[in-house]
Amino acid sequence: MSDPVLSSAMLSTDAIELVGMIAGGLTTLAYVPQVVKVWRSRSARDISLGMFLLMNAGILLWLVYGLLIGSPGLIAANGVTLGLTVAVLVAKLRFDRLPTAPVLAEPASDSV
Amino acid sequence: MSDPVLSSAMLSTDAIELVGMIAGGLTTLAYVPQVVKVWRSRSARDISLGMFLLMNAGILLWLVYGLLIGSPGLIAANGVTLGLTVAVLVAKLRFDRLPTAPVLAEPASDSV
User: Fold this and answer.
1) Whether the Cβ atoms of residue A37 and residue B48 lie closer than 8 Å to each other
2) What ipTM, to 2 d.p.?
3) Among A8, A21, A46, A100, which residue's CB has the most CB atoms within a 10 Å radius?
4) Residue A81: which CATH number?
């Protein structure tokens, strides 16, 4: 049941851990362009508040889990990720109060 | 260096693994409200394309990593997550071509 499905015999442990490290780097760095976008445009209406509430809670628990098992990799990745997901959440809470999105606003038809 | 920072002696291994499972559940489920939001509103302009390209690549690698180490938990969580992040990416690519966001469009000032 928990036997590796892919043939891990063909990859060294180092190579496998490298895959994990690249995966962790990507899923952490992914939030950077989202943070830049919402803070630059001052618009976050299409962002789901529910997503970022759940995501912040989840990342915080991953950080706690990393601390409990003493994993420097989990602690570092989730510490950085938490900073980024908090930045998106703050943007959402802040910019949704603005009447319009001033920077990236597009001309809208009055007939809608 | 890799000694647990929190006192894991106070928590059983089962309790620690429960924290990890809740964390994994939250960071997977978090995408559900985002998927519902963009497909309902047919608007994804505030969503970062860069975020979801990087996130899909990262989640795919987490899935590969789970297969390589034979972890049913990683495989299940990242399999479900990948389906959800692909759904957001497809919405982004599809709805950004629409001239306006018809459902949630708001009256915009002409004086921008």
Assistant:
1) yes
2) 0.81
3) A46
4) 1.20.1280.290
The residue length of chain B stands at 112
- In angstroms, the CA B107 to CA A106 distance is 11
Q: Residues B54-106: pLDDT tens digits?
A: 999 999 999 999 999 999 999 999 999 999 999 999 999 999 998 864 555 55
Question: What range defines the domain where residue A34 resides?
Answer: 19-95
* Domain-located, residue B79: yes
Lookup: tokens for A56: 């912040």
**A103, part of any domain:** no
**Is A5 a domain residue?**
no
Q: Per the CB < 8 Å rule, is A4 touching B59?
A: no
Tokens 């706690």, located at residue? A64
CB A75 within 8 A of CB A66: yes
Structural domain includes residue A88? yes
Q: Which of A46, A7, A12 is nearest to B36 (CA)?
A: A46
Number of domains composing chain A: 1
Tokens of A92: 């959402």
Contact B112 A104 (CB under 8 A): no
